[in-house]
Inverse folding.
């Protein structure tokens, strides 16, 4: 591991969806998530972090230092047990103790798992004994994404010729189903990176930062599916402060991004919008990079 990052960052991601469902709500029949008061679409932070984790897992293939803690099919306490075993710490001996043991377990988990080093994690599970590898607040924090304009989800009826049972085949030749889609929507996601937490807690470094940018830019490229339609990251705008604690409040930087419609028709493509960073609103000591 190299030295932790030394600069604070904020970033904005613009991504769009065409004829797909970016983040279904299981409590609403898997309809696209929506703010019922305003009609704006929502994509949760958990959904976005899942795609980043999946990208890192795909490109790094569990290589040393880049494993994923929260992943499909792997119980959390399996990874927690591994930390105890690798460090030679007895689970019972660690009960109720603070100090060096906590630091060893936390540092092991941060050093081995990219998503803990990046997003943090609550690493406490219960089996026969309590496994506690600590609670880590990650330097990278992501907010919910919200659509630029209100969305109008559509329910599309579909048919299939494959019948479920032999009894059903005697009565019908096709079966009906439904899919929820958004014809088109552009979403905005804002995020924060704390160099202070990277230095004090997880050790998130420049290599991790480069991998994070790569994962954000490509997070939909290995995640295509019929249900999600066409999804793509269109912009990654990065604000870099000249020091660890930053030169201005984050909202000033986010407010410098203007997203305007350039057509009078219903938006159906990214070209229906114009994105401008008003650099005159960006305070001294902050550099702006449009990575796409």
């Amino acid at each position: 591991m190299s030295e932790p990052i030394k600069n604070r960052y904020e970033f904005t991601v613009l991504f769009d969806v065409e004829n797909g469902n970016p983040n279904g709500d299981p409590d609403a029949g898997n309809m696209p998530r929506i703010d019922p008061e305003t009609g704006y679409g929502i994509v949760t932070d958990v959904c976005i972090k899942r795609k980043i984790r999946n990208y890192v897992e795909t490109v790094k293939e569990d290589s040393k230092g880049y494993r994923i803690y929260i992943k499909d099919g792997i119980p959390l306490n399996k990874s927690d047990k591994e930390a105890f075993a690798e460090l030679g710490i007895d689970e019972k001996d660690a009960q109720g103790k603070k100090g060096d043991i906590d630091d060893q377990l936390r540092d092991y988990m941060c050093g081995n798992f990219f998503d803990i080093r990046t997003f943090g994690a609550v690493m406490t599970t219960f089996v026969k004994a309590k496994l506690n590898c600590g609670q880590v607040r990650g330097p990278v924090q992501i907010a919910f994404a919200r659509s630029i304009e209100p969305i109008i989800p559509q329910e599309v009826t579909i048919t299939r010729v494959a019948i479920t049972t032999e009894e059903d085949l005697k009565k019908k030749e096709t079966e009906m189903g439904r899919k929820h889609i958004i014809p088109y929507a552009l979403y905005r996601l804002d995020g924060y990176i704390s160099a202070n937490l990277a230095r004090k807690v997880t050790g998130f470094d420049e290599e991790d930062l480069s991998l994070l940018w790569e994962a954000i830019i490509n997070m939909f490229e290995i995640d295509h599916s019929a249900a999600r339609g066409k999804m793509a990251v269109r912009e990654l705008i990065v604000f870099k402060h000249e020091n660890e604690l930053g030169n201005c409040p984050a909202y000033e930087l986010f407010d410098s991004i203007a997203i305007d419609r350039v057509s009078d028709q219903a938006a159906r493509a990214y070209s229906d919008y114009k994105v401008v960073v008003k650099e005159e609103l960006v305070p001294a000591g902050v550099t702006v990079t449009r990575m796409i």
